[in-house]
Write a structure and sequence with these properties.
Blueprint: H1 2-42, H2 51-86, E1 90-92, E2 97-99
Antiparallel strand pairs: 1-2
Length: about 110
């Protein structure tokens, strides 16, 4: 049983370290870092651990996330349009669907 307890403590320590690393990275660098960078452009007296820095950082990251989603949707739409046109279809922008029209080709009958 001693080996099980040692292994459990070891794994618990590793997961604690990894969790702490990601929490520090996300909170300190991404949220507070971006918030401080933006706030320091407007005022020289900015508290790096203040609530303003955290709020500005969160708003900035939310705007970046929304921007990424908008770009993703735009690229998906353009890819669907391109795929439709490449396959010989016609893209209906209002219905956001690819339409294929049946073209009946009349072949000239050879005359005798």
């Amino acid at each position: 049983m001693l080996v099980g307890e040692i292994a459990g403590e070891f794994l618990g320590g590793i997961f604690k370290f990894i969790g702490r690393f990601f929490a520090e990275f996300i909170i300190e660098l991404l949220i507070k870092g971006s918030g401080y960078f933006i706030c320091s452009r407007f005022s020289k007296r900015v508290d790096p651990d203040g609530i303003l820095v955290v709020v500005v950082g969160l708003v900035f990251l939310c705007l970046v996330g929304v921007g990424i989603l908008m770009v993703y949707d735009f690229v998906q739409l353009q890819s669907a349009i391109d795929s439709c046109l490449d396959s010989g279809g016609r893209y209906d922008y209002e219905a956001e669907a690819c339409e294929y029209s049946r073209q009946v080709e009349i072949q000239a009958m050879p005359s005798n």
